[in-house]
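Reviewers of the previous submission asked for a worked example of the structure-prediction workflow described in the proposal, so we include one complete record here. The input consisted solely of the amino acid sequence. No template or homolog information was supplied to the procedure at any stage.
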Amino acid sequence: MNMISFPSRRSRGKVHAPTVTLAHGGGGKAMKDLIDDLFVGAFDNPLLAPLDDQARIDLSSLAQYGDRLAFTTDSFVVDPLIFPGGDIGKLAVCGTVNDLAVGGAVPLYLSCAVIIEEGVPMDFLRRIAQSMAVTAQEAGVTIVTGDTKVVNKGACDQMFITTTGVGVVAAGVELGAHRARPGDAVLVNGLLGDHGAAILGARGDMALRAPIESDCAPLQGLIARLLEAAPNTRFMRDATRGGIATVLNEIAEASQIAIEIDEAATPLRDEVRGFCEILGLDPLYLANEGKIVAIAPPDEAAAAVDAMRAHPLGRQAALIGHVTAGEPGRVAMRTIFGGRRIVDMLVGEQLPRIC
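From that input alone, the workflow returned the following structure tokens.
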């Protein structure tokens, strides 16, 4: 293994201004102090420490995990920035980690680019950076490089974050939406729609006595257990924007099969079910940030559910339906009244700026 030498620890700048100003994006000392104090201070690690324009990673450290690189990127513009169960920083780390993990990768490294509006309080920015650091540690990933831009007041809504992730896929792990076969089981790892409900509540659109918390969480540990118990799992995807309905339609179209799910078996919080009925929303389309849809072969489905239920983030995992040989691309639900209804791809957006 080639060793990478790092410079000795340098002195770091400190921020003294109470709010972000345009000077903090101007490339001078104010910007250096902002990066040092808020971001380097929170994300501190040897790969980040040189503060070069790139992070340099030893290839041998990647190869120990597998033989294929997984690479993903995502932007986060959630409104509000802080909500029950999370904030934009936690969301940014979880979203990118989960995008890697559902492809069978071990998430390892993240980059973080932040666009900040002039006037944002430094204490708020520090809170978001610390949230990202804590979540990255929980997920077992390292934030190794990044970028900061400051824009005029009114040019963005306080803060936007873009995270890019790198992971490694082990040999023999083959997942894809085109791999579903008739007889396969459709699995989820728990209660659906909590994130969408949490955001809706945080915006003041609902008067909830007991606010629903977002399910925002890094899922790499749960997914590793699932793949260990059910190594022939066909496909996984985190059901974010568009909910599980969108994911199921993507699978049905890619594999040219049909899918039927059972409403009675689909896990929903009573509060989520209730406000969906009042507001005319369909919980199948509500966003999630800690839930996956998995397609498993019939002989491994029970083991997959058991493995997820043994993990804290999968205690209410359920088998909610099956892949069938019906009309290709069609998703249907058996309702609690004994009928069947079509579950189409979401048209438009039930709730914008959800992540």
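The longest helix spans residues 122-139. We consider this example representative of the routine output the project will generate in years two and three.
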